[in-house]
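Input/output pair, single chain:
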Amino acid sequence: MNGQDQKCVRERVCANEETFLSPYAKRSADTRGRAREERSCDFRTDFQRDRDRIIYSNSFKRLKNKTQVFFAPEGDHYITRLTHTLDVSQIARSIARSLSLNEDLAEAIALGHDLGHTPFGHVGERVLAKLASCGFKHNEQSLRVVDVIEKNGRGLNLTTEVRDGILQHKSTGKPATLEGEAVSIADRIAYINHDIEDAMRAGILKQEDLPKNAVETLGRVTKERINTAIADIWKNSYGQPHVRMSGEVMSATNELRGFMFERVYELANKSIQERSERMLTQMFAYFMAHTEKLPQPYLQLLENDEKERVVCDYLSGMTDRYAIGVFESLFIPATFSIGGIS
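Output:
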């Protein structure tokens, strides 16, 4: 296959997008590009390349050892930050496919949306936000990961559209593309439903505990609730310049989300709040006072960024068990180490 034949592969994908995608979808050929200009790939569109770059990044690999809700649970089937990310990706792709949006763009955003999440779930995020005067939000950190931290400070040089979707994926965000909107709503659908399953697995919830009205609207089990949500989004968004649920389904979803915060999330957070806060607080103070102890890639970041920001970069990039290991090595004599949270 010569170079011209190879180029035809990408061009054929772009031609198919022109034919089959919604007029409101973001076409690969219309990307606003990258901060650093690059030669186009002969086989892949820019959004497909972004997806691949994220999958092969170190930050993505570490998601498998970061808490979603339950820390170090006894069992092999609890959700981690990685399996949550894959769940969001699958739902976002289903939404994008049903609405004739750009599935590659939606997938890339979904795979990158939580790269900046801390160890110990949202507890870790709240601790760093309190410690750092510069503030800390996981969506902003996810963007910093792909822009600055990955590839030893060079970043992944992702497209503008993927970067926007990552930054704006929270429910309060305003994504610039419908594919970004699809990921934002897929994130909520995913975590509500898989967290219900985990809470039942942990014995915190029973099926009959779920709000009756929400169950009647959305469905009794995860499969039914996800199917209801996607079908409702299609009904209310196909051929429209938005991605949204109906008022009824959104109300039921919000009711279920509120129930989870009251009955599950606060309880799960309390179980690791004191220990994780103590570890992150002591490590933050230590590395602020001893920046020379930071790993080499983070020392390089100090050349251009404030000390607080770089310490947050290091701590937020840790997996749960790596954070515990660093804490023990710094503050617990080897003869007293217990191999777990102290």
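Confidence is low (pLDDT under 50) at residues 337-342. The chain has 15 helices and no strands.
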